[in-house]
Amino acid sequence: MGGRVCDFITQQLLNTANGVTDRLTTHKHSVTMLSSLLLLCSGVFLLFLLFRVRRPKNFPPGPTALPLLGNLLELNPQDPLQSFKKLAERYGPIYSLYIGPRPVVVLASQQVIKEALVTRATEFSGRPDHMLISHITQCKGVILADYGPKWQEHRRFALTTLRNFGMGKRTMEEKILEETRHICAELEKHAGKSMDPQYLFHYAASDIICSVIFGSRFDYDDPYFKDLIVMIVELTKLILDPWAMIYEIAPFMRRFPLPFNRAFDVTRRIKSHIFKVVSEHKDSWVSGQPRDLIDCYLDKMEKRADKGTSFEDSQLVAILFDLLIAGTDTTSNTLRTATLYLMTHPSIQERCYQEIEEVLGSREQVLFEDRQAMPYVQAMIHEAQRVADTLPLSVFHTTIADTHIQGYSIPKGTVIIPYLSSALREEGQWKSPHDFNPDNFLNERGEFVKPDAFMPFSLGSRMCLGEGLARMELFLILVTLLRRFRLVWPEEMGVPDYGMVFGGTQTPKPFQVTVHLTGGMK
């Protein structure tokens, strides 16, 4: 009996000793893990102190930036405009961000945008040279080229050529009206049925700019043309997608097969077509007898050949690339937006139709000068541009000198984002900032007026040079369509979705439209 008791006591002592040992071992491991964690945290903290982002003195306020990443995690990759809006609500109409290690100042009100791009136009007239789009365009052309004599010379050339375009026997207006006949023919094929209008409007807008710069248009059924339009649409999405932001942080990663390389591939393919057209023009070009913008440019090159000039082949290709991309995507997406809102607001469509009929009467064809007698139609078109918000972040600027705005200091080389959406929906600037309402552009007497906050083409010296062409296209195409067709929302589509798809240009989500031939809105 006594032996069993001794054995029992011995076993308990052994168990206790083993438990103590296990606890000591566990404690030792815990201490080791805790020490490792503390060392890791200390290392991260030291790295943060070493690489932390310090805003310049008297710089606009903004959220705390992480080393290397900056504030990229603050931006919703699918809908960054909501992030820009929330930051404006938090920090005010001028605030700063860091895209990777680079400081960016966001202008988020009509007043601030105007002060920077108009009052201080020269200081804010630069362009970034480190972004994906900058490297794609090689900072040439008239959109992404940096401010200076070369850019000024080429912008002046492009503006003059587009404004005074009347080569041969046709004016710009006649070219657009010709294209409306192709649009109508395509819509008539789908009369009474639903169709997706996206590529139809892209085809039309692209053909108009192609007729101006290349002297010819494509057939809508041309397989190459269809492929070209798909590439243009794709490129406008690639230049500001999340992979473009990664490229911004680490451009050396271009050597790896990552998605942003697709942008370079698409650009090469589009430019290869442009090179081909330029080569064909050189073979048939006759000095002093221009057929299109290319011929005008070749004339310039000849006249200045022995004087030293910035007019040369690579700049010509860059200008053609700029005009082709900008002239295709922005106008077509505005036409799509107008179609979406007109068919879901039948009373507005009816009122436009009645005004068109009153002005045109028995006349078959609309003229651009008719817009003066159509204040409601003009108001509707401008409202479509406002809600389309096609270039919500404009094209990024940089400061070319140390400057200031709203009491803040902005160092030379700072990237500037004119957040145009903020002005186009700014409270106090519009009667109905969040609704589709042509009354936003009508005074109490029903006359057309254009508020200062209307800036879909941006402002100042970098303002879109295709504004005049776009205004003419939108008026002539929409008036023609509203006179010949009734646009109806298909019942099978359910509730309309007015949400937008973000990109270099913002686009409506895909939708269908039913078209009916009409001699009146019954």
TrEMBL record:
GO molecular function, one term: heme binding
InterPro entries hit by this protein: Cyt_P450, Cyt_P450_CS, Cyt_P450_E_grp-I, Cyt_P450_sf, Cytochrome_P450_fam2
Chief place where the protein resides: membrane
Gene3D superfamilies xrefs: Cytochrome P450
Cofactor: heme
Sorted UniProt keywords: Heme, Iron, Membrane, Metal-binding, Monooxygenase, Oxidoreductase, Transmembrane, Transmembrane helix
Subcellular location: Membrane
Designated name of the protein: Cytochrome P450 2F2-like
Name of the gene: LOC105908655
